[in-house]
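Q: Given only this backbone (216 positions), what sequence would you predict?
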């Protein structure tokens, strides 16, 4: 599969188009498929539907893990801090639009709209050709966090990390969301016993330099 392209921020959902070219980059169907299969992987491995809230937290945890350990994210998405934690902006919109524009998306997942949220259900085994071995390791690491802290505590857990904490004052001042900076994903968690990524400090620093220098 071709390399995923960097994704632009999507600030205006009214203008959202899954296949349109933007001023910064072209949103490729390859990236959409990788996001789709990552979310399908979560729901398939957990064996039950996942709420949009939980699955977005899982993707953040997987992206953070992979970025610190291998110098790139799984999804290629951009992150915003919101009251309930980090949110991958494009992924959120894909879910809300029922993966419209992705060929055969409904072959793999269904999105059920509940009274206050969406649920993502796996209807077929994910196409693992879209996910590398290390991608799957990152997704599994996120699932292990969920198993330990539970669905009701995962929001509190993701609030521990500095990339979200740095944006918290803006949210408290009334901002609906605030752009998160990927360089902050490399900062250590203040509560060291909550760090779920086993990359040592030297490796994290190497991957930070690689990522910031655009080597991925």
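A: Predicted residues:
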């Amino acid at each position: 599969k071709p390399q995923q392209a960097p994704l632009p921020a999507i600030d205006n959902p009214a203008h959202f188009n899954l296949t349109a070219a933007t001023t910064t980059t072209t949103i490729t169907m390859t990236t959409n498929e990788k996001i789709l299969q990552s979310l399908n992987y979560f729901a398939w491995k957990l064996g039950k539907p996942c709420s949009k809230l939980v699955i977005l937290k899982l993707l953040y945890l997987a992206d953070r893990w992979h970025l610190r350990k291998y110098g790139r994210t799984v999804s290629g998405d951009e992150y915003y801090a919101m009251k309930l934690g980090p949110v991958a902006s494009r992924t959120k919109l894909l879910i809300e639009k029922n993966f419209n524009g992705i060929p055969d998306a409904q072959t793999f997942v269904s999105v059920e709209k509940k009274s206050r949220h969406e649920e993502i259900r796996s209807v077929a085994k994910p196409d693992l050709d879209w996910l590398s071995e290390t991608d799957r390791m990152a997704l599994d690491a996120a699932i292990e966090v969920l198993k330990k802290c539970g669905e009701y505590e995962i929001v509190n857990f993701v609030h521990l990390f500095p990339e979200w904490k740095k944006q918290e004052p803006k949210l408290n001042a009334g901002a609906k969301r605030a752009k998160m900076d990927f360089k902050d994903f490399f900062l250590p968690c203040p509560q060291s016993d909550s760090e779920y990524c086993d990359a040592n400090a030297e490796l994290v620093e190497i991957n930070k330099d690689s990522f910031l220098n655009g080597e991925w």
